UniProtKB/TrEMBL annotation:
The chain crosses the membrane at residues 31-52, 58-78, 109-132, 139-163, 169-188, 195-213, 313-337, 349-372, 408-428. Belongs to the nucleobase:cation symporter-2 (NCS2) (TC 2.A.40) family. This is Uracil-xanthine permease family protein. Residues 436-462 are annotated as: Disordered. Keywords: Cell membrane, Membrane, Transmembrane, Transmembrane helix, Transport. Its main location: membrane. It is found in: Cell membrane. It is a multi-pass membrane protein. It comes from Brevibacterium otitidis. Residues 437-462 have a biased composition (Basic and acidic residues).
Length: 462
């Protein structure tokens, strides 16, 4: 960290435990921020394969239970597995694009079989990261984090407008609810003291939820139908291992690992003002893999670190992993008490969107901060331009890779994989200075235009 760079002081350090009442509120805040994504993904898969209402409810239940258990794996850890950082795990959006066609062609058991293989791929990558970390200096990590944030913004704005597929998408009511949440959150954050400021997202979501009820945006019918207690049976849908599932899910494991590397880098930089350590990086990616394989045993979709919760840590400055562990405990309870889970699950998308746009935007800020660690020369600027331009270009125009095989097309349109690959390659192949001399791109313009001659006098400008 340079002397001119302002030091980041967390409200609570990684191993610091806030007062219990405050920690509980902060933990619930993490649950609410990740709830929409975690619940929506299994519902989308269930709808795509024509699952029954009972099967859909089961997929949502195990998504919550597994998210809680795997989050504890990150925050507490087992041996070398787990980052011991305030990382929240949840159902991965990235795998969904592979899971739906697999489930439709081979059955949902193929999704879970392929996910076990994907988990093994991530564990291998996690073990190797101690030797591969040189591939991810601040320049590359910053590009990855920046691309994650940019790629999530459309999702955040879709939630802000009421959620994709909503019949009221973009209505004044939905936009008004999202704006209310955003304004309340910023006011609480700016003028609140102590827990009021730290839990500003939680209070804003509560205000938005209560406002949505008289606005007719909350349907409690699912709450009435949900059971009070249920323990999910493992392997409800079984396991299958067709080659297409192994290839497709294994390829997506690479993309998810790159995303997790970005989240780990972002949370330490934006929350604690330092770079992620080798041990945190390796343990975090391994935990991602173990979580994905474990999720399959309970018929839950692959798990990954949640970018919106990384943004929440950056926004609040609460780096305590114990807070996230408490949030994980609530997720486990919700997974065992479906009726309470349903109360949160029916929270309108627009309410979540009011907070999500800020959380995803914070990831962009974290990426910029990582890039600022490097004294950017013209080659670095070219790396940024090509990586983000091509990577996000494919993501913005998926039809541009329509001629590629499906598995490769999925990786290219993720945005993260092509951006990271280009950044790594271009960073490793940067031009080298000759015999210790300065690169032309690193020499200040003043020295180029008015260098000293051999006789000590200024030579004419070039």
């Amino acid at each position: 960290m340079s002397a001119a760079e302002p030091e980041i002081t967390p409200r609570y350090e990684i191993n610091e435990m806030p007062p219990l009442g405050e920690a509980v509120l902060l933990g619930i805040q993490h649950v609410l921020v990740m709830m929409a994504s975690n619940v929506t993904i299994p519902v989308i898969l269930a709808t795509a394969i024509g699952a029954t209402t009972g099967e859909t409810a089961f997929l949502v239940q195990v998504a919550l239970l597994v998210a809680g258990l795997t989050t504890l794996l990150q925050t507490i850890g087992i041996g070398p597995i787990g980052s011991r950082l305030p990382i929240v795990q949840g159902t991965s959006f990235g795998f969904l694009v592979v899971a739906i066609p697999l489930a439709q062609s081979y059955g949902i058991a193929a999704v879970f079989g392929g996910a076990i293989f994907a988990g093994l791929v991530q564990v291998v990558l996690g073990v190797s990261l101690r030797w591969l970390k040189t591939l991810f200096p601040p320049l590359v990590s910053g590009i990855v984090v920046l691309v994650i944030g940019i790629g999530l913004l459309p999702t955040g704005m879709a939630l802000y407008a009421g959620g994709n597929g909503s019949p009221t998408f973009g209505s004044w009511t939905d936009l008004g609810l999202a704006t209310l949440v955003l304004v309340v959150m910023l006011l609480f954050y700016r003028f609140g003291r102590g827990i009021i400021g730290a839990a500003s997202v939680l209070f804003a979501l509560i205000v938005g939820y209560l406002a949505a009820i008289p606005a007719g945006r909350v349907d409690f019918s699912d709450v009435a139908e949900a059971a009070w207690f249920a323990f999910p049976a493992p392997l409800k849908f079984g396991l299958d291992f067709p080659a297409a599932a192994l290839i497709g899910m294994g390829a997506m494991a690479i993309a998810t690992s790159v995303e997790t590397i970005g989240d780990l880098s972002a949370i330490t930089k934006s929350g604690a003002g330092r770079e992620v350590t080798d041990r945190e990086l390796s343990g975090g990616v391994m935990a991602d893999g173990v979580a994905t394989a474990f999720a399959s045993l309970f018929s839950a979709l692959p798990n990954t670190s949640f970018g919106q919760n990384v943004g929440l840590v950056a926004f609040t400055g609460v780096m305590s992993r114990h807070v996230v562990s408490i949030g994980a405990g609530f997720l486990i309870l919700l997974g065992l008490l479906p009726k309470f889970a349903a109360v949160i699950a029916v929270m309108p998308s627009a309410v979540i969107g009011g907070a999500a746009v800020v959380m995803f935007g914070m990831l962009i800020g974290a990426g910029i901060k990582l890039l600022a660690e490097t004294a950017l020369d013209r080659h670095d600027m070219l790396v940024i331009a090509v990586s983000i331009g091509v990577g996000q270009g494919f993501a913005a125009v998926p039809d541009s890779v329509a001629l590629f095989p499906d598995t490769i097309a999925v990786l290219l349109t993720s945005g993260i994989v092509p951006a990271a690959a280009l950044a790594v390659i271009m960073n490793l192949t940067r031009p080298k200075p000759a015999r210790g001399g300065h690169l032309d791109i690193d020499v200040p313009m003043s020295e180029k235009s008015d260098p000293l001659g051999d006789d000590g006098t200024h030579s004419p400008p070039r």
